Amino acid sequence: MYKIAVLPGDGIGPEIVPEAVKVLEVVARRAGIEFKFTEALVGGAAIDACGRALPPETLELCRQSDAVLLGAVGGPKWDALPPEERPETAALLPLRKELGLYANLRPAYLFEPLADASPLKREIVSGTDLIIIRELTGGLYFGPKKREKTEDGEVAYDTMFYTRAEIERIVRLAFQIARSRRRHLTSVDKANVLTSSRLWRDTVESLKGEFPDVTVEHMYVDNCAMQLVRRPTQFDVIVTENTFGDILSDQASVLTGSIGMLPSASIGGSTALYEPVHGSAPDIAGQQKANPLATILSAAMMLKYSFKMHREAAAVEDAVGRVLAKGYRTADIYVPGTKLVGTAEMGTLVRREL
Amino acid sequence: MYKIAVLPGDGIGPEIVPEAVKVLEVVARRAGIEFKFTEALVGGAAIDACGRALPPETLELCRQSDAVLLGAVGGPKWDALPPEERPETAALLPLRKELGLYANLRPAYLFEPLADASPLKREIVSGTDLIIIRELTGGLYFGPKKREKTEDGEVAYDTMFYTRAEIERIVRLAFQIARSRRRHLTSVDKANVLTSSRLWRDTVESLKGEFPDVTVEHMYVDNCAMQLVRRPTQFDVIVTENTFGDILSDQASVLTGSIGMLPSASIGGSTALYEPVHGSAPDIAGQQKANPLATILSAAMMLKYSFKMHREAAAVEDAVGRVLAKGYRTADIYVPGTKLVGTAEMGTLVRREL
Ligand SMILES: CC(C)[C@H](C(=O)O)[C@@H](O)C(=O)O
Ligand SMILES: CC(C)[C@H](C(=O)O)[C@@H](O)C(=O)O
């Protein structure tokens, strides 16, 4: 029996998460195992209920679970709060840090039937299948930061700080993931300018001997941002610093058609966290318009990374592929000539293909 | 009489720069003014000649000139050097800093005949006309940095440091430029996570009262990376921190077809610097294959920003547009059905249209 913490969150969260839970239930039944789901509050819903975006009970539940499935957090209702107190920041950052989730995995995979929905030309995006591994508990996000008045006026700073050990663990993980894929690793940094990037690059160099079967390339972050648009098919696994990863993974997420398709996993601690890349989409919340596929694919990542159920994970991904191939689309990926369906309907279609 | 320092640099630099110089000569003749051009070494060529990527004589010449036209620096010959000693880093960073060039202006403008060469679908990229204004002498590039061994092992850091005054001058410039365009300013930061971004955002807020005719929007950097691909036409002027600007402007540069089309200006000091966005392209150097249009368009920016010759600047841009509309292309923007020309030929065509 595996314990799964379920945090629907805000906006479309409560609509999409149940679809993924039901997929996991089908998988469990087939595999003859049991998942025990426990719901908890997070984000704006938690702020409203108890004044905190990440209540201690929720964190405790996550700690005691084998995996966490999260929907999305935030919305206009809480936009009057200072940026650092909004649900996204005040829930997600401490959750990652507290659970020790140092690696954020974000695949950008093109389901070929969706090439029309991509902003990129078909011949550019076709075949895209990459994963960005973002360092998630260090770097510019968590280094020393301060704002103060000095003799020279007001100043503020943040620090991109890394220890060699922090870099080693994420890079080693990236090498291992590259090994399970096409064996090509692109390490992204700004080593021509940043000292922390030089430590990053040296660390990658020092580890590559352990993975002789993986080819390694170093790329500057500005060039990577360019190459992701120019020729995304050149990438297999990308590993990079927290802030660089935040930017590049959001950029990559739109290449493949819709951010509504993209799952993520945050791993490294004892309990991993799975969530769609998209936000809470308050504008369409409660209307059964949201695309549940990113959450369903996040559940597939859970099967793979938390429960080592590789076959079952692949089955879920294949089911999603078949539903798309049959022409079913939620509004975010709809193009004329396809069949428009709602959130629950899309979930049912995927389960039927399982 | 205006004095212009000419630094061709490496690779294709010595092929493209003369084409822009000749355009400036035509402009001067028509306008009845005089430009005095003086050449100097920079980059790898300078390393080879005197062991320094930015020789003191070159810097001195730049200081005494009214504007600087630079080609490109770097190449495989110097790639064995540590990243921070390579021509790009060791020439460009100190040149910017010494000349006080705190604002890097990078337009991404689609010449409509080139929509086919863009990785984006025509309906997405058509109409793109934005400019990124990147802070260039502060932020993560120039804040305190260090690498050291501690009890916890090796560590390294860089600091994203800003004073309110540094932010004010670049934001004010961005407002002014927005005023001369479509009056929409997007300030890009990561204020939900970074303290320096909060100072950035507050500074923008404190200045906007001075520019009531400009609409201002704040956008997180990850979202901006996404929006640039999803819908680039939503942007007019983008202003942002040094590293964010490095990443976003390189990303934006590929949207419009070819990086071979994109000019830049670095301004703020007494002498401004103009250079194409692309690099020295050593693979095609010496073959008359390079696209001189980015350098020619950089010369147009010089006319506009250094010499206030707005009409002449527009005339150069229009000439480039007409040459493209007539179907002439260098190799980087060639598609079947257009007419392939070399570097010098493209330069001649533009001058003929002037
Ligand atoms: C909400 C925000 C703090 C978060 C981040 O920057 O990490 C988000 O952009 C993400 O990528 O998960
Ligand atoms: C060469 C490098 C130091 C430089 C930078 O990062 O500023 C380049 O990428 C640029 O954008 O001009």
From TrEMBL, chains A, B:
SMART domains: Iso_dh. Its EC number is 1.1.1.85. It is found in: Cytoplasm. Pathway: Amino-acid biosynthesis; L-leucine biosynthesis; L-leucine from 3-methyl-2-oxobutanoate: step 3/4. One of its GO terms (cellular component) is cytosol. Mg(2+) binds at D222, D246, D250. One of its GO terms (molecular function) is magnesium ion binding. Its cofactor is Mg(2+); Mn(2+). PROSITE patterns: IDH_IMDH (PS00470). Substrate binds at R96, R106, R134, D222. This is 3-isopropylmalate dehydrogenase. The lineage of its organism: Bacteria, Bacillati, Bacillota, Clostridia, Neomoorellales. The gene is leuB.
